[in-house]
Amino acid sequence: MTGHPLQPFFDPQSVAIIGASSDPEKLGGRPIRYLRDAGYAGHIYPINPKADTVQGLRAYASLADVPGPVDQALIIVPAAGAQQALQACIAKGIRHVQVLSSGFAEEDDTGRQRQDDLARLAAAHGVRLTGPNCLGIVSVANRFYATFSTALEALAPQPGGVSFATQSGAFGSCAYAQAIQRGLGIARIVATGNEVDVDVAQCIDFLASDPQTRVICAAIEGCRDGDVLRRALLKAAAAGKPVILMKVGASARGQQAAATHTGAIAGNDRVFDAVARECGAWRATSIEQMLDIAYLCTHLPRPANARAGVLTVSGGIGVLMADDAERLGVDMPALPAAVQTHIHERVPFAIGTNPLDTTAQIGVIKNGLTDLVGILLRDTDWATVFVYMAQIPCDERRFPPMLDELAKLREQHPDRLIVLVGPHSERMREAIEARHMVIFADPGRAMAAVGGACGIEARRAGLQGHALNALNARDAARQDPGEGAAGSAHETRTQDKGLGESLLVPGARLNEWQAKQILQDYGLPLLRETLCTDPDAAVRAAQAAGYPVVAKIVSVDIPHKTEIGGVLLNLRDEGAVRQAYHLLRERGLAHAPADTIAGVLVSPMSLPGTETILGIHMDPLFGPMVMFGLGGVAVELFQDVAFASAPLTDQAADALINSVRSARLLQGWRGQAPMDLAALRKALVALSRFADDWRDVLAGVDVNPFVLHPDGAVCLDALITLKEA
Question: Which residues does 51 contact at the CB level (< 8 Å), separation at least 6?
């Protein structure tokens, strides 16, 4: 027992089935049959007012008739009767209830009202609910099969360390069936359904502290509390338990379907990626990939690094795996010269360095394959060695001795991963796993599984406390929501200018000049620029800045100035500046009321550089998220942006910069000078602090473009949007 609030859902000593059926094929009958067939040792109390016995067990007309306390109840009655059943649970003192019935928010408005009533009743009496519209819970070790899923009938689970937490019961059943076929041992399965109370995030939190669980597989359609999910993922990472996530709702259509199904917010997909990365979890792209990574993590040690070697009898397979490795972030270093010498002394016809092609002749050299594996394990620091087995004799006479030799190498190098690849029988797989190795039929799946395991370990080892800092900042904001940024050095400086107090209030609208002045106070670099309200002032500003200059119209109603010709470049003399001032005023008045036009902004021409975009996305689930990517029109064309939780540390800012595909362009590309990444880091951290200070009033921030130079950076345009009053 962990003492976790959800423990009684998974390890009850007694369970009541409200709506119990004598027919073991009906929904109300299956849980009883499954519990009895599995050998559940606790008490089972069927509740059925029309029967004396149910499937050989004494039935009770009501919960009140059950002698003694009951740990948990399953409600499997029509939706209209669920509230009455819950009231009976409350009267009996049952504090953990699963509502397996459907017909709630997933169906129609009437069902939604029933669901809301159920949630209020449970909350008022301190009852924890899973569901409604859920598939139930399975705990294999104690044989608690509180579900109506027929997946249990076709494939009996074996005890093990993999646990599943999903919203969708069908998804959970599908993943369970494939896991059993894959040979994975199961610890817990929970499907949370409509999640009026207990959700997947809370279940991950339980599994993180559950001694029976070693690997957590979770599928999320939507999320109601991003902080609960963050804390659960961080807890699992701290416990050394890999979390492999599948998040549906990546597309607009998928998000709509998820909202219809569960009523939860699917949320921004890139934001979810960022949170998973920060909290040490790995996002799988399919059930197959999720289970492959879980399979690897349950059989092998954590990879010490992301370096791998490929030993193959096929040059083509080696090239394929090298391609997959690069895509998946697995490093395949070339063999050192000394190691190559050792290999060619043993196998003269071996080709290449990594992948190493032994050719099919390896099959005629006694112990040739195992000797090469031994050299790679002994003479390199690669955490993983892949061995492609096709065309290697694997008959009953030669296969077991070869496995025994590989197993000895595995024992000599307990921190290394030996991953076999190639066609195999079930008997071969069992023999391999009995020797604490793994095998994949498909080389691409093998590489993806290792890539996922390496990624999980790298994220876990690289956690810098950044995600926890973001959580603590949100907690502080909740405890004192009225202060905003009060008390911070940043807020003190903005108040000195009168901008923070007067401008950053809900319902206010900021123009470019106001936004840039506030951001400058937080540390974002600007050009020397002046807001001018007459032509003479514009000329004086231009002379002070030095020709040539830029002039821009400034109005809260014209956020996209280039679309109306509101930016004039390369103004080289007084006459050009005066003409530009009048032209910009004229164009501005054609698109905005006079009282919204603050003036014309005059600044020196910026030197050419690399345009990037910085921003703040106020996510409804995860709070302020810093955005970074390639700027200008490229941000819309390529969508090469990434997110990270605010506030940022220096390390988190560096990770954010390096997470975009175009990061190499900033580091010096094809002879170009590298950009000033220190200035970029400083700006991202400053922007994140601004977002953290003003999280209660901000709706969003765009800094586009933020131009990088080899020595320095500059914010050329900014937009701050505030929440409605």
Answer: 20, 22, 59
Instruction: Provide CATH code, domain 149-299.
Output: 3.40.50.261
Q: Provide the whole-model pTM.
A: 0.89
Percent of the chain with pLDDT over 90: 72
Residues 351-404: tens digit of each pLDDT: 878 999 987 777 677 888 899 999 999 999 999 999 998 766 565 667 788 899
Beta-strand relationship, 53-54 and 57-58: antiparallel
233 touches 276 (CB < 8 A): yes
Q: CA angle at residue 151 from 45 to 128, to 5 degrees? A: 45
**What's the burial of 209, exposed, middle or buried (CB within 10 Å: 0-12/13-18/19+)?**
middle
Burial class (CB in 10 A: 0-12, 13-18, 19+), 495: middle
What CATH fold (topology level) applies to the domain 302-461?
A: Rossmann fold (3.40.50)
| pLDDT, tens digit (0-9, with 9 covering 90-100), for 627-657 | 999 886 667 777 889 999 999 989 999 999 9
d(CA 223, CA 141): 29
Q: Residue 469 and residue 231: Cα distance in Å, rounded?
A: 11
Angle 444-450-453 (CA atoms, 0-180°, nearest 5)?
140
Would residue 150 be called left, alpha or beta, if left means φ above 0 and alpha means ψ between -120 and 50 degrees? alpha
Cα-flanking dihedrals φ and ψ of residue 395, to 5°?
-80, 175
Q: Give the Cβ contact number of residue 91 at 10 Å.
A: 12
What is the spatial distance between Cα 681 and Cα 695, in angstroms, rounded to a whole number?
Answer: 21
Q: CATH for 528-605?
A: 3.30.1490.20
Angle between helices 269-278 and 466-479 (to 10 degrees): 110
Using an 8 Å Cβ cutoff, are 554 and 589 in contact?
Answer: no
Ranges in the chain annotated CATH 3.30.470.20: 610-722
Handedness of CA 470, 473, 478, 481 (dihedral sign): negative
